[in-house]
Specification:
The protein is elongated, with a radius of gyration of 23 Å. A hairpin with a 3-residue loop joins β4 and β5. Helices cover 21% and strands 26% of the residues. α1 packs across α2 and α6 runs antiparallel to α7. The chain is of the alpha+beta class. The mean pLDDT is 91. Strands 4, 5, 6, 7, 8, 11, 12, 13 and 14 form a 9-stranded mixed sheet that branches.
C-alpha cells in the first residue's frame, strides 16, 4: 500500500475527476483509478467524489494505491528462462510448447503459473504482469511488468508502437525481396479458432526481409509494428509464404528437388511454426533508457536450417 498526494493545478480546474487523476497519476491506468475512486481510495480534501465530478484548483487529492490480487491460479515451480530482471521488469526467453495464458484446457502448466511461483507479488497485476504474448509453439523473448507503474508504461508503449520486436521465420516459398504487409486482422468469419485478413479487422503491419535463401524455402527477418493474434503467421500465409510447420495456416511439407533423406526427415518432423522472437527493444519503465535483448535460435530451428543448407 502506498499513499500519494497531488494538488489540482489551475490548468486542470473544472475538468472531470477521473481525467484529472489520469494527468496527475500517469503511472496507473484510468480504469484502475476509476475503481479506486469508487472504492473510496481516492479523496479530495478528505472527501469522496464521483468520477464525473469536477475539481477546483488548489484542492488536495489523496490516493491510497492498494493493489488487490487479480488472479486465482496456483503458482507452479516451472523452469523459467530469465534473461534479465530488475525491480520493474522481467525479460523471459520462452521455450516453444509453453502456453502463456491459462485458458480452456490449460489451467496449469502455463507461463502465468510459473510467474506466480517466481514472484508471488505478480498476483496483484493483470495477467501476472504479462503485457504481450507469444503463441504456444513460438519461442523467444517476452517482457513482464513487476509493478502497476511498469505495466501501465509498457502497455502504453506497445499501443504507441514504440516497442521493437524482431522475429526469425522460415517460410515455404522463395520471395524475390522483402516487403511490407499492411493488412487488417480479425477472427475468421467461419472458423472462430483461426485469425484471418479481414477488411474491417484491426490494423496490422509487418515488415520482412530475406535473410537466407534455399531452393524451396526462405529464412526471413520480420519486425512488427502491431501485435495482433497470430499476426506473422496470418500475414505470411496471406502473401503466399506460410511458415514452415504451421499446423493452422501452413501447408504440407515441400521437398526441394534431390532433397537428402536428412532434409526430408527434418521437414516431416518439424511440427510447429518455425518462428522465434529473437530481439526485443524498449524504453525502461523507470529510467527511459533504451534496452535491447537478443535470443539465440532454438536447437530445433538450428537443426532445420543446417539440413536446408546441406540438402
Amino acid at each position: 500500500m502506498e499513499t500519494q498526494y497531488a494538488v489540482v493545478p489551475e490548468q486542470l480546474a473544472g475538468q472531470r475527476f477521473d481525467r484529472v487523476l489520469a494527468q496527475l497519476f500517469p503511472d496507473y491506468s484510468r480504469s484502475r483509478l476509476q475503481q479506486w475512486v469508487k472504492s473510496g481510495q481516492v479523496t479530495v480534501d478528505g472527501q469522496q467524489r464521483r468520477v464525473r465530478d469536477s475539481v477546483k484548483a488548489g484542492e488536495q487529492i489523496t490516493l491510497v494505491a492498494k493493489l488487490e490480487p487479480c488472479l486465482e491460479l496456483e503458482p507452479e515451480a516451472i523452469d523459467l528462462p530469465v534473461v534479465a530482471e530488475d525491480e520493474a521488469i522481467i525479460v523471459i526467453d520462452k521455450p516453444a510448447g509453453l502456453v502463456v495464458h491459462p485458458g480452456a484446457g490449460n489451467h496449469t502448466g502455463t507461463l502465468v503459473n510459473a510467474l506466480l511461483y517466481y514472484d508471488p507479488d505478480l498476483e496483484c497485476l493483470p495477467r501476472a504482469g504479462i503485457v504481450h504474448r507469444l503463441d504456444k509453439e513460438t519461442s523467444g523473448l517476452m517482457v513482464v511488468a513487476r509493478t502497476a507503474q511498469a505495466h501501465h508504461h509498457l502497455v502504453e508503449e506497445l499501443q504507441q508502437r514504440r516497442v521493437g520486436r524482431a522475429y526469425e521465420a522460415i517460410v515455404v516459398g522463395t520471395p524475390t525481396a522483402g516487403g511490407k504487409v499492411d493488412a487488417p486482422i480479425a477472427r475468421h468469419p467461419r472458423d472462430r479458432k483461426r485469425m484471418a485478413v479481414v477488411r474491417d479487422g484491426r490494423p496490422a503491419v509487418s515488415h520482412y526481409r530475406v535473410a537466407e535463401r534455399f531452393s524451396s524455402h526462405t529464412r526471413l527477418s520480420v519486425e512488427l509494428e502491431t501485435g495482433r493474434t497470430h499476426q506473422i503467421r496470418v500475414h505470411m500465409a496471406h502473401i503466399g509464404l506460410p511458415l514452415l510447420g504451421d499446423p493452422v495456416y501452413g501447408r504440407r511439407p515441400v521437398y526441394p528437388k534431390s532433397a537428402s533423406d536428412k532434409l526430408r526427415d527434418q521437414l516431416d518432423g518439424f511440427r510447429r511454426q518455425a518462428l522465434h522472437a529473437c530481439k526485443l527493444r524498449l524504453a525502461h519503465p523507470l529510467t527511459g533508457e533504451q534496452m535491447e535483448w537478443y535470443s539465440e535460435r532454438p536447437a530445433d530451428m538450428q537443426q532445420l536450417l543446417e539440413a536446408l543448407r546441406e540438402g
